[in-house]
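Section 5.1 Outputs to date
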Amino acid sequence: MNYFNDNTLVYLNGEWLPAASAQVTLYNQTMHYGNGIFEGIRSYKTPGGVKIFKAKEHYERFIKSAELMYIPVYHTVEEFTDITYQLLEKNNMGDAYIRPLLFLDPNMSLVPVEKSNLFMCAWEWGKYLGSGLLRIGISKFERPNPKSCHIEAKAVGHYTNSILASTEAKRRGYDEALLLDSSGHIAEGPGANFFYEKNGVLYTCPLGNILPGITRNTIIELAKENDIEVIVKLSTPDEVKTADSAFFTGTAAEVAGIQSLDDYIFPMDWDKSIGRALQQKYSERVLV
């Protein structure tokens, strides 16, 4: 996939540069040790113009992640948002996926770095997991133990876990993985939160072992607005394999329906499921 072309501009430490000419030092701590933070944000063409969906919530999480990882931040939520709208305008983009990244200065020791660098880019990106129903498998990899790191931070290094899980699942013939936590309960996908439906009730796992997803929160909000009961609880794979339907949520994936988990096929017609109804509601909400 081409993330930029000759006309693409990116933001780097206060400058607007052609993407092809933006440079960083190869000695930065983020590249060597994974200590950096990022966000995934979407913008949409709406009747009222281009709108970044939940920019405030994304940049609040961005700043919180940086604080947890001892990374200095030099901008406010409002300033990050303003830079993002400039990015979209300069690249003549409406429906776009936006990637802000805070990476660190050179440092080969395992201590915080005094200076961070802000990079921001955007590209046109369809739904990350596609539009069809997914065949997923329980991963042999677990989500990191929350006592080992700040699991709620959207940190660069955390995504080696996601790469391993997703790659392993695809090599086994699945579309995507579903990871468990260290206690054997359902956690999330490599890059998306997980919901399942049973007897007209929606279930999802609690915070603590997962990324606190902004799309996840939006789906819970939409469910409550439409009088759909949501229960946040720990669930085992065996419980999920008695469910009626299931889906992933995430900024990149939006709402992605799931056909099966391992050898269990969810019996409900996706078009009649709560997930499908909320998928439609979500598509409407991002355009408001």
